[in-house]
User: Fold OB domain-containing protein from Exiguobacterium undae.
Amino acid sequence: MKQSKGMFIGLTVCILVLLVGGAIYKLNLFGNETAKETSEVQSAESDKATKDSDIMSISSITEEMKGQQKKIIGTVTERSTSKGHVFLKVNDDSGTISVPIFKDKGIDSSMFMSGKTVAVTGNVDVYQGKIEVVPQTEQDLIMMESNQTEQITSDDVGQTKTVSAKIISKYVHPKGHIFLTVESTNGQTLKVPLFVSLKPDSSEYPVHATATIKGKVTEYKGELELVPAALQDVTLTNKTAETIKTRTLSSIQKSDRGSQVIVEGMVEQVTEKNDHLFFQLTQDNKQIKSVLFKADSQEIKGRKERIENAMVAQFPIRVMATVDIYQDELELIIDKVLVD
Assistant:
């Protein structure tokens, strides 16, 4: 009887051991899978964080980093060549840096043109007091295609955006504001107001210059604007002056938008509205709408008088004007009325 009781207790203990052991096994197995999944997620997040942290803002790269390898992402704002070497200026929201691509590296840089967004990995160097990031291999230059066709839309109102663009027209308001019309590298036309509070200098923003512009997206009278908060948010990359040519009215096309021209013609249909003077300039049966914007100076009053007198006396005048497009029609913005 005692032996039977002992066998029963032993059997019960064995069953309990098996049950507990099975439970522990299942729990450990479940725990291992969870740990594995957690580890994979943490590893992926760590890789992403490491990858993102490798990208530096241009302004954070200093001379003390000379010899170190750094990575930047930005827009090519200028490209030049010399003796087989290629020199890029790359800009992000924080600043601009030089990226020399030396001939002996064997890097094909033909696709890295102005307006393209690139990722550059290279060694930090200092040349003539300027910091550079110098790529060493083909893999150190990567085209960021996803950013090439981005359009600014009404959904972006209130956001800060950066574009590379060409200045295609400029209007200086009598109160000192400067209103630029720019065409971005993707073909989009935007207005860029530089308000008098920024103290802009009109001569610093020549028509046909290229620029990188950072500003807040707004909408005014149905047109999208990019409004810089400071003059430093407009970085000019090419300020080559354009020769002012004498043209016939019939030769002026929409593709001349932003060009300054000297033209001659008869004044017709003069009207004045809000102190602006609107008229038609006519030459050999070709007419172009023209406007003399108001200003407070005596010089503007003199221009207005000469235009009105030319209409009354029916004699031609010569003007220096900027070609623009308004409501899809050619327009001449009068800069000067020339006196022979």
User: Anything to note?
Assistant: The helical segments are 2-54, 298-313.
